[in-house]
Write a structure and sequence with these properties.
The chain is of the alpha+beta class. The protein has 3 domains: 36 residues, no CATH class; 36 residues, no CATH class; 81 residues, Orthogonal Bundle (Arc Repressor Mutant, subunit A). It has 5 helices and 8 strands, in the order ββαββααβααβββ.
């Protein structure tokens, strides 16, 4: 609220400023005052980590480098996308194309194809591959037949073509 501005039927002075509430201001000034209170409205859209496929929310520390941010954590930066990750992605797509249109697979199925007898150590990389495929729009991740957010899904998941 500025001095010399009309609030309702009175002009604002240092004495009357405290008595004027925000809804009595001019609609343009009111909306500007409300928007300036919520800085989250100007935050950029979330991104997806290129390694694990989880959604990353904007952080203040990334303010100057948000366009260059590719990884959600130091662990993902260190790990990177390896050849086994690409093999898991192609195994998922191949398994899904072999099945009927509405059917789904478990990420462990792709881990068994790629890893053989030692598939259990590829269980989490297979889930990450499924999240990456979902982020680019090729697949959907479901639980109990309903599509879920891949970043927050806990427990058993299924993958199906989009």
């Amino acid at each position: 609220m500025f001095f010399g501005q009309k609030c309702g039927e009175q002009w604002l002075t240092p004495d009357t400023r405290a008595s004027c509430s925000l809804p009595q201001l001019h609609p343009v000034i009111r909306s500007a005052a409300v928007l300036s209170r919520f800085s989250y409205m100007s935050e950029p859209a979330p991104k997806t980590c290129v390694v694990c496929g989880r959604t990353m929310q904007w952080r203040k520390k990334w303010e100057r480098s948000w366009d260059e941010v590719r990884y959600c954590s130091t662990a993902c930066r260190r790990r990177g996308v390896q050849s086994v990750d690409r093999e898991l992605e192609s195994a998922i797509v191949e398994l899904l194309t072999e099945r009927s249109r509405g059917s789904s697979i478990c990420p462990n199925d792709a881990a068994r194809v790629v890893g053989g007898a030692e598939w259990e150590q590829l269980a989490e990389p297979a889930r990450a591959a499924a999240r990456r495929l979902t982020a680019v729009g090729r697949t959907e991740i479901t639980q109990a037949g309903r599509v879920v957010d891949p970043s927050t899904a806990k427990g058993l998941i299924r993958i199906r073509l989009r």
